[in-house]
UniProtKB/TrEMBL annotation:
The lineage of its organism: Bacteria, Pseudomonadati, Pseudomonadota, Gammaproteobacteria, Lysobacterales. The gene is pgaA. Keywords: Signal, TPR repeat. Residues 381-402 are annotated as: Disordered. Residues 395-674 form the PgaA membrane beta barrel domain. This is Poly-beta-1,6-N-acetyl-D-glucosamine export protein. TPR repeats lie at residues 292-325. PROSITE patterns: TPR (PS50005). Residues 1-25 form the signal peptide. It comes from Novilysobacter luteus. InterPro entries: PgaA_barrel, TPR-like_helical_dom_sf, TPR_rpt.
Length: 676
């Protein structure tokens, strides 16, 4: 016996009274649904199928049509579930299409912003599992979805390899997959390939501002700074700040314009114009103080301008507003480390790496952290030669001079301490002394830095390798301390017994010296600064020599591959004895104005090669002699060997004047620095 619901019986009776059979009505409804699907009116067709299947839940054809329409309307997950329940109703092509749609939908959800960090990649991992389950089909569509998934999982090297394989096979990659490929190529540090992929994606997805922004960064990392700036500036000009729909009473913010404009500011900052970037972002942050993204971006620019304390405030605000903001978390680690608050920086670093272990920016920060907290090595070598216009040189450097130094510091201990050891030698040749005067030192040191305070103590054994009454074999001590008042002002004090900076001429006569110094430094921003120092030498023969100097610099031109800087110095000095057996004018003074031009000829991320040309001209005056012009020239090569690692070397030529006698001095030096 067949039982029917009261509602269904009522419908059937109504149709019979009107002279329309249920079969005819069903056929008409199916025809209406077919026409709606042909017109792309998926929701109208779906409504018809839903109504008909409610009447005939066991109808296989209705089940099939309803499932296909769900797939058409974008309900990929629901269509996939219905397909799995009754797979025999669908052709192989239909099943493959719905499988691919299901994987793609999972990938889209995987790319959405998570509610909490621990579950950040769960949806994308489900997409990966689904893709692996259907990868036997090995169709281009599956490969494209796989590429998007690998990008979302931040497996950028694998995504780049898959993209290259597709291109090698002559397969045309659609725009959405090109965008993912370009992002992965950029993250894997292949910016030129990324540009090619992203240009194709950006042309097809011209309304997708995220792809346009990634293309700008690909230009930037390819060294095409002007192209990156022009690209984003063009989008900013084309997009209004506010959008108003017809008839709407209020306007909505245009987020495409916001994204293009804020990232244009960041591109300018990375192109050597952080001042312009700050001028763009600061008013926006003032209008929207609750924006985590704006606070994080402005913090990054302020940090680049040399104001870490102000930057940390921005990063802290951004992190409080949105703990998931990755830029804010990375910025906090950098700012805390710059301020010497390494314990807090380490905690922030460890939490970041636990939450984002595979993120390319987090990994880069971790690499920098290892160099910041690891071993530090500094080595240098120099040599020079001086010739006098007269019969003999009066230079405190002698006719020839040179030396070397090697200093090693341990990795950071307790987030504040470093142990160190060093070896150094200074030597010079004087006509009226033994063939060569040496100051050879071996020593150890302890360095401390925390927040505003930094200090260091050293102890060394000094030996000039001579015998007799003029031999100098003594212990040397040195202590130095620095205090940071704020982002602009710093002070420094130091004192040394048997100091290495004392005159080698005095050492040749068996005379050693203690020194003491006070310094103050003001930094306006990343382009300009001013410093002053007062120093006193207390020689064993009772001579007290004092000097006061002020020096400053200002970069009048700063571009990605070009920097032109003006510098200047003034100094005055005096000595208490006029009969010392070493160069010791009772009164002297001088000034110098110079310019440095630095050109970068090759750069690849943290590796670069630059040349530097320097020229300076000034006057020196000494009591008892007239003022004399003193020119100098310099030329250097600088190699950046990675983050915190550098090698540079150069030659310097000058025409100094000592005791009224003009001389020539030519020197060469090389320096190696390893570890920040």
């Amino acid at each position: 016996m067949i039982h029917a619901s009261p509602a269904r019986l009522c419908v059937a009776m109504a149709l019979c009274l009107c002279g329309v059979s249920p079969a005819t009505a069903r056929g008409d409804a199916l025809e209406q649904a077919t026409q709606a699907r042909a017109r792309g009116e998926w929701l109208a067709a779906l409504a018809i199928y839903e109504r008909l299947q409610a009447d005939s839940p066991d109808d296989a054809e209705l089940y099939r049509l309803r499932t296909l329409t769900l797939a058409d309307v974008g309900s990929a997950s629901r269509a996939w579930a219905l397909l799995q329940a009754r797979p025999g109703l669908f052709t192989a092509d239909e099943a493959a299409r719905m499988e691919a749609d299901h994987v793609a939908r999972l990938a889209v959800w995987g790319g959405a912003r998570p509610l909490d960090e621990p579950r950040r990649l769960e949806d994308m991992r489900r997409a990966e599992a689904a893709a692996l389950a259907v990868q036997a089909a090995d169709t281009p569509r599956h490969a494209f979805d796989r590429l998007v998934i690998l990008n979302g999982l931040e497996q950028h090297a694998q995504a780049a390899d898959l993209y290259r394989r597709l291109r090698a096979e002559g397969i045309t990659v659609p725009a959405y997959a090109l965008a993912a490929a370009g992002d992965s190529l950029l993250a894997a540090r292949h910016p030129e390939e990324a540009v090619e992929a992203l240009e194709g994606a950006a042309e097809a997805l011209h309304d997708d501002v995220d792809t346009q922004v990634v293309l700008a960064y690909a230009y930037l990392e390819s060294g095409r700074h002007a192209d990156a700036t022009r690209h984003l500036a063009r989008i900013v000009r084309a997009e209004p700040a506010w959008q108003r729909e017809p008839g709407a009473r209020t306007a909505d913010a245009n987020w495409n314009r916001y994204s293009a404009e804020t990232n244009l500011a960041m591109v300018l900052a990375y192109s050597g114009h952080p001042g312009r970037a700050e001028a763009m972002l600061a008013p926006m942050a003032a209008m929207a103080p609750a924006s985590s993204d704006l606070n994080a971006k402005l913090g990054a620019v302020v940090l680049q301008r040399g104001r870490p304390e102000e930057a940390l405030q921005r990063f802290d605000v951004a992190h409080t507003q949105d703990p998931r903001n990755l830029d804010a978390r990375i910025g906090r680690v950098d700012a805390l480390a710059e301020l010497g608050r390494m314990r807090r920086a380490r905690r922030a670093h460890d939490a970041l790496m636990q939450a984002w272990p595979d993120n390319v920016h987090a990994r880069r920060l971790h690499e920098q952290w290892r160099h910041r907290t690891g071993w530090q090595v500094e080595a240098s070598l120099h040599g020079g030669r001086g010739d006098a216009d007269g019969p003999a040189t009066a230079s405190p450097l002698g006719s020839r001079d040179g030396g070397h130094a090697l200093a090693v510091r341990s990795p950071l201990l307790g987030d504040r301490w470093r142990l160190g050891a060093f070896r150094s030698e200074q030597w010079a040749e004087f006509a009226d002394a033994t063939p060569r005067v040496r100051d050879l030192r071996h020593g150890i040191g302890l360095h401390f830095r925390h927040d505003r305070l930094e200090w260091e103590v050293q102890a060394a054994r000094s030996d000039d390798r001579r015998t007799g009454p003029l031999a100098n074999d003594a212990t040397a001590y040195r202590a130095a301390a620095g205090w940071r008042f704020n982002d602009q002002w710093r002070a420094r004090a130091e004192a040394g017994h048997n100091d290495a900076d004392a005159s080698l001429q005095a050492r040749a006569a068996g005379i050693l010296a203690d020194t003491a110094a006070l310094g103050l430094q003001w930094t306006r921003d990343e382009r300009a600064g001013l410093g002053g120092e007062f120093r006193q030498w207390r020689y064993d023969d009772g001579n007290r020599r004092e000097s006061l100097s002020v020096d400053g610099y200002n970069a009048v031109l700063a571009m990605p591959r070009l920097r032109f800087e003006l510098r200047g110095q003034v100094h005055v000095g005096r000595g208490s004895r006029d009969d010392a057996p070493y160069f010791n004018p009772t009164r002297d003074a001088g000034w110098t104005l110079g310019a440095d031009l630095r050109t970068t000829h090759w750069q690849r991320y943290d590796h670069a090669f630059s040349q530097q040309f320097g020229v300076a001209l000034g006057q020196s005056w000494q009591d008892g002699f007239s003022a004399q012009w003193v020119p100098s020239l310099g030329y250097r090569h600088a190699w950046s060997l990675g983050y915190g690692r550098s090698l540079d070397y150069g030659v310097n030529w000058s025409r100094p004047v000592y005791d009224g006698q003009r001389e020539r001095h030519l020197s060469f030096d090389v320096q190696l620095h390893w570890g920040q």
